[in-house]
Design a protein that fits this description.
The protein has ten helices and twelve strands. By secondary structure, the protein is α+β, with helices and mostly antiparallel strands. The chain has a domain of 278 residues: Beta-lactamase, CATH 3.40.710.10. About 19% of the residues have low confidence.
Length: 418
C-alpha cells in the first residue's frame, strides 16, 4: 500500500512538471507569433522618423565633480523666405475659361497674393524645375566664363531618357553662361546636366544642393529628384512654392541680375566652340508661346503691363506648366499655372489671370484734369485709399490631396520636359 502511494505521488509530480513545461512552450509560441505579427503589420505603418534631422546632443562636464549639464537647445534656423499673405484685394480665382488646376498670382515686392487656386497642393512642375536649377548654379559659380566639357556618357544618357536638349555635343566645351541660357530658353536637359556636373560633380550631388536650397528658403511643398524636371513620383512642388522660387531669383542680391537677364532673353547665341563653329542659336520657348499676346487690364486694346519673361514646362504626367513675370509701374508680379490643358491654353490662362487680378491703381485717371494728383478718398489717418471693395476673401481649395494625382497621356506631339 505504501509503495502504491509513492508511485501515485510520483505520477502526480510528473503531470505537474509536464503541465508547467507545456505552459512555458505555449508562452514561447505566443511570443513568437506576436513578434512575427508586429513585423508584418509594421510594414504598412509610416516611419515617423524617416528623413527626420538627427539631434546632436552634447553633454558637458564641469570641473567640480563631473556633473552632467542639460543639453542646450539647438538654435532654430530662420528660413530665408516667408510665405505671403493674401492682399486686401485678394479675390477667389473664378475664371471659367482658365484650364489650369493650380495657380497663383504673387506681388513680389509686397509679398502678397492677389488670387490663387489650389496653390498649396502638390503637383508635378516639369521644366519649371529649371528655375531652381539655374538659381543654384548661379550661386555656386564664381566665373560664368568657366567651362564644362560634355562626355559621350552625358549625351547618351539624355538620348536614353528622350529629354529635350539645347544641342550641345560630346567633347564640346561650353561656358556656364551658355549652359544657363541653354537650360532656360530651349529648356535643354543637356544644359542642366552640364550645370549639375560642373557645380557638384554629378546630378545626384547637385539635386542635394537643390533640396538644401528648398529647406533654406523654408519651402514646405517641394522636393526634387533631378535637375531638369523629368517625371518622377517623388519630384513635386506647388504653384506657391514655384512662385516663391521665382521671387527669390528676382530680388536676391548676387542672383537677380543674371537670373532676370536670362529669363527675359528672347534669343541667345552660344560661344563658338570646337563642335559648334558658329555657336548655337537658342530661342525662348516662353516668348514663342506669348507671341501675339499682351496684357490689357483696362480693356482699351493696348498693353499696359510688361511681359518680362518666364519658363514653360511639360511632361505627359504634369501637362502644361507656365511661370510668367510681369512688370507694372516698376514692380514685379509672378503668375504660376500648373496642369493647363495645352500649351496655348497655358498662355491664355496666365494672360487671363493677369488681366483680371493684377492691380490697376496706376490706371486710375485724375478726376480733376488740372490736378496731377488722383482724387481719391482718404482714411482718417490721411493715407490715400483707392482700393476697390474686394469681391471675395476666400480661397478655392475644395477637397484634399496628399500628392500629385495620376495624369492621362498627352495627345500633343511635344518633347518631354519642355
Amino acid at each position: 500500500m505504501k509503495r502504491k502511494t509513492e508511485i501515485m505521488k510520483s505520477i502526480a509530480a510528473n503531470h505537474t512538471g509536464n503541465a508547467a513545461l507545456c505552459a512555458i512552450l505555449i508562452m514561447i509560441m505566443l511570443l513568437a507569433i506576436g513578434t512575427a505579427a508586429l513585423v508584418v503589420t509594421g510594414r504598412s505603418q509610416i516611419d515617423e522618423n524617416k528623413r527626420m534631422p538627427e539631434k546632436n546632443i552634447v553633454i558637458e562636464t564641469s570641473d567640480a565633480g563631473n556633473v552632467q549639464q542639460e543639453p542646450e537647445e539647438p538654435e532654430e534656423v530662420q528660413p530665408l523666405m516667408i510665405y505671403p499673405e493674401k492682399d486686401f484685394d485678394f479675390m477667389k480665382m473664378e475664371l471659367p475659361d482658365v484650364t489650369a488646376k493650380y495657380s497663383v498670382l504673387l506681388d513680389v515686392a509686397n509679398n502678397k497674393l492677389y488670387t490663387a487656386r489650389n496653390y498649396t497642393k502638390k503637383a508635378y512642375p516639369a521644366s519649371l524645375t529649371k528655375l531652381m536649377t539655374i538659381i543654384v548654379a548661379i550661386e555656386h559659380t564664381d566665373n560664368l566664363k568657366d567651362t564644362y566639357k560634355f562626355t559621350k556618357q552625358d549625351i547618351q544618357s539624355l538620348e536614353d531618357e528622350n529629354a529635350s536638349v539645347a544641342g550641345f555635343k560630346a567633347g564640346e566645351k561650353v561656358t556656364v553662361e551658355d549652359l544657363l541660357y541653354g537650360a532656360m530658353l530651349p529648356s535643354g536637359a543637356d544644359a542642366t546636366l552640364g550645370l549639375a556636373n560642373y557645380v557638384a560633380g554629378s546630378e545626384e550631388a547637385f539635386v542635394k544642393l537643390m533640396n538644401d536650397k528648398v529647406e533654406e528658403l523654408g519651402l514646405t511643398g517641394t522636393h526634387f529628384t533631378n535637375a531638369s524636371g523629368l517625371h518622377d513620383e517623388d519630384h513635386y512642388s506647388t504653384a506657391m512654392d514655384m512662385a516663391m522660387i521665382v521671387k527669390y531669383g528676382l530680388e536676391t542680391e548676387g542672383v537677380s541680375k543674371v537670373f532676370t537677364k536670362i529669363i527675359s532673353a528672347e534669343s541667345y547665341t552660344t560661344k563658338k566652340s570646337n563642335k559648334n563653329k558658329e555657336g548655337i542659336l537658342l530661342s525662348s520657348i516662353f516668348f514663342q508661346r506669348y507671341e501675339g499676346f499682351f496684357i490689357d487690364r483696362d480693356e482699351d486694346g493696348r498693353p499696359d503691363a510688361k511681359i518680362v519673361g518666364g519658363k514653360t514646362g511639360f511632361t505627359d504626367e504634369s501637362k502644361y506648366s507656365l511661370a510668367s513675370v510681369y512688370e507694372v509701374d516698376g514692380e514685379y508680379y509672378v503668375c504660376v499655372t500648373l496642369k493647363s490643358a495645352d500649351s496655348g491654353k497655358a498662355t491664355m490662362d496666365n494672360v487671363a489671370i493677369a488681366e483680371r487680378y493684377l492691380p490697376t491703381y496706376d490706371l486710375i485717371e485724375p478726376t480733376n484734369k488740372s490736378d496731377s494728383s488722383i482724387a481719391e478718398s482718404k482714411t482718417d489717418s490721411g493715407v490715400v485709399d483707392a482700393t476697390p471693395e474686394p469681391i471675395d476673401q476666400t480661397d478655392s481649395t475644395e477637397g484634399t490631396e496628399s500628392g500629385p494625382e495620376d495624369q492621362t497621356e498627352s495627345t500633343d506631339a511635344e518633347a518631354a520636359g519642355v
